[in-house]
Specification:
Distance between the termini: 67 Å
Number of helices: 11
Structural class: mainly alpha
Oligomer: single chain
Largest sheet: 3 strands, antiparallel
Number of strands: 6
Helix content: 55-70%
Radius of gyration: 24 Å
Strand order of the largest sheet: 1-3-2
Shape: flat
Low-confidence stretches: 1-10, 144-151
């Protein structure tokens, strides 16, 4: 018996192969190929079903990360074999889990489509919802309607960041359409990804070389690297908050100065005294 997400009830999170592949962002074909190559441990056999758990999910994410860095499957196999011959993968997988874990304490929420429409004045803009789904602001929960049309609106949505959706709702109350907020988020996200790359590059140059040298990364160094990741999160957030506050004040002041330029001189002088 499985739940709606294909997980097998039990003390650990467990998956059937198609849901494991979905959670890891890969394909069933890849999962089987990794097993055939010895990159992924075999599943537990339960009756007619192969059952996987979070150990397999962590390994798939590790493989994906190494592939993104240019490693071949043969090279990844040699790396994993070396790790497993000499030491546990626990330290490395702990570091991977720390890096890939959510960098916020925010908890996702779930909204029925009717509730979502109510928050946006009886929303009928299906394209705005589709754009929100593409950006990951909304995640449609599987339902019978998806079996008939990939473009069909879901009846229920997972909201990974309720705060982000709340911002869009508040902007809507101020007269900003959801489509405009989504378009703005798309631009902001590109800026944030650029900023994140700068922080990661800084950490890669200034912080992590002391843990990751020419020698294989052992469990102690992996644990120290994971602790460094935890310590850097609030530091990065503090820099962003302080610099955004400074930049917002600067840009708002420039806009205000431009807006009052056409006002009568006495008004301009009064405003200038406050700037």
């Amino acid at each position: 018996m499985t739940d709606a997400m294909g997980r097998v009830p039990g003390p650990r999170r467990e998956y059937l192969i198609d849901h494991l592949a979905q959670a890891a962002g890969t394909t069933v074909r890849n999962v089987r190929a990794y097993q055939d190559r010895g990159l992924l441990p075999r599943a537990d056999r339960r009756g007619r079903a192969n059952v996987y758990d979070d150990t397999h999910l962590d390994r798939l994410r590790l493989i994906a990360g190494l592939l993104d860095r240019g490693h071949t499957l043969a090279g990844i196999k040699e790396l994993l074999d070396a790790w497993e011959d000499g030491r546990s993968l626990g330290g490395l997988l702990g570091l991977v889990a720390e890096v890939t874990a959510p960098w916020t304490d925010e908890r996702p929420e779930y909204l029925e489509r009717a509730d979502l429409a109510a928050r946006f004045g009886g929303l009928r803009d299906s394209e705005a919802i589709a754009a929100a789904v593409r950006l990951g602001v909304l995640e449609p929960e599987p339902g019978p309607e998806q079996a008939h049309s990939a473009d069909a609106l879901a009846e229920r949505y997972r909201v990974p960041s309720p705060a982000l959706l709340d911002v869009a709702a508040r902007l809507y109350e101020l007269g900003v359409p959801l489509a405009a907020s989504i378009a703005h988020l798309r631009e902001v996200r590109a800026d944030m990804e650029h900023l994140a790359r700068r922080f990661v590059h800084f950490a890669a140059v200034e912080v992590f070389p002391r843990y990751v040298g020419s020698a294989p990364l052992d469990d102690v160094d992996a644990a120290r690297a994971a602790e460094a990741v935890r310590a850097m999160r609030p530091l990065a957030q503090a820099v962003v908050d302080a610099e955004l506050a400074r930049a917002m004040r600067h840009e708002a002041t420039l806009l205000l100065e431009a807006s009052v330029a056409s006002l009568p001189e006495p008004v301009r002088e009064a405003v200038a005294e406050e700037l």
